[in-house]
Design brief:
The protein has 172 residues and is of the alpha+beta class. The chain has five helices and seven strands, in the order βαβββααβααββ.
């Protein structure tokens, strides 16, 4: 089976898996996923030709998990693979609809990997995915898998009592 990975970075500036029941990888858990991602973030790594410094650990966020699960299921249902929803919404739009007030947000996708470890290895090999895993501004994370589709969401919420006034998107 052919495997693909796609990465996107969306950074907002002001002037932002339900893997626990994985039939292919029954021992993977939220704790395991966080441990693997945070171990990488703690030691730093090389993403393509760029050395990435260590980054603070991320924590699991249920809204990011819900968004990732919804996107994985939609891609399966409509048999497509993209950072845009079937309605053309990107991760920022989809998180807005769920009430996640994001300051920084990003998404890693993969298709065809049989385990989380395999998806993680493929993301680390890809410079843009690796940079998302190591992004120092990301504070929260979640992952969902549905059938052959993997969706990993990262985010940082806006500080309390702030509002978005300008959106800048950067895709990687």
């Amino acid at each position: 089976m052919t495997k693909y990975i796609v990465g996107i970075f969306i950074i907002v500036g002001f002037y932002g898996l339900s893997a626990q029941s994985d039939p292919y990888d029954p021992y993977v858990s939220q704790e395991y996923i966080l441990e693997k991602v945070n171990r990488l973030r703690a030691k730093g790594c090389k993403c393509g030709g760029k050395r990435m410094k260590s980054a603070e650990p991320v924590v699991w966020n249920k809204t990011l998990e819900r968004s990732a699960a919804m996107h994985a299921r939609e891609m399966y249902r409509y048999d497509y693979f993209s950072h845009k929803s079937i309605d053309g919404l990107d991760i920022g739009d989809r998180l807005d609809a769920l009430g996640y007030k994001w300051h920084h947000v990003g998404e890693n996708l993969a298709i065809g990997q049989k385990s989380f470890d395999e998806a993680m290895r493929d993301w680390i090999k890809s410079p843009s995915h690796c940079k998302m895993l190591m992004h120092p501004k990301m504070k929260e994370m979640a992952l969902s898998r549905y059938k052959k589709y993997w969706v990993q969401h990262f985010g940082t919420q806006m500080p309390a009592k702030t509002r978005r006034t300008k959106i800048t998107y950067t895709e990687g």
